[in-house]
Design goal:
By secondary structure, this protein is an alpha/beta fold. It has one domain: Rossmann fold, CATH 3.40.50. Helices cover 42% and strands 13% of the residues. Strand 2, helix 1 and strand 3 form a beta-alpha-beta unit. 31% of the residues are buried. The model has no long low-confidence stretch (mean pLDDT 89).
């Protein structure tokens, strides 16, 4: 797998991991780039899909930086959702679904919906809902997110600092 560094941030960044193609999402985002003229960068294993309008890379060395700079990040329902929430970037979740044989079960659906209830971002179950969800996300200011691990680490650091001052 070849890593690439992209210098300019796309308007829309799509990230789906490295291992399994996500053709349903890739086709939709390639079409979206063609229809809207927006700069769309798709990161993921493309399988045998050939992009015509969106830029595609398998892996990015500067994915985290591009996520911070993108207007909207679209991702599957994995832990990337948490990373995007921590960055405070508008996001759309498109979980891989068992019904389309994109995964072994619907755990990404459950995880994405659970986070979306707390942090109010769109979860796209059917690809026909993707374009309106992108428009909604572009107008949304994401809520402040702090992982429980960060909250615990901050608490412990403050406690140790207070003890050191005693």
């Amino acid at each position: 797998m070849k890593n690439k560094t992209t210098s300019s941030a796309p308007e829309i960044l799509v990230t789906t991991g490295y291992f399994v193609p996500f053709t349903r999402l890739f086709q939709a985002m390639d079409h979206y780039a063609g229809v809207t003229g927006k700069q769309v960068l798709v990161q993921g294993n493309r399988g045998d899909y050939s992009f015509r309008h969106a830029e595609h890379v398998t892996a990015l060395t500067n994915l985290h930086e591009l996520m911070k700079q993108a207007e909207v990040v679209i991702t599957h329902g994995a832990m990337t959702l948490v990373e995007i929430l921590e960055l405070g970037v508008p996001l759309v979740a498109v979980p891989r679904r068992l019904v389309y044989k994109e995964h072994i079960d619907d755990h990404q659906v459950c995880f994405a919906k659970w986070l979306a209830e707390k942090y109010n971002f769109p979860v796209v179950m059917e690809i026909d809902d993707l374009f309106p969800s992108i428009e909604k996300a572009e107008k949304t200011v994401p809520p402040k997110y702090e992982s429980e691990a960060k909250v615990l680490n901050d608490f412990l650091a403050a406690t140790l600092e207070a003890w050191a001052l005693e």
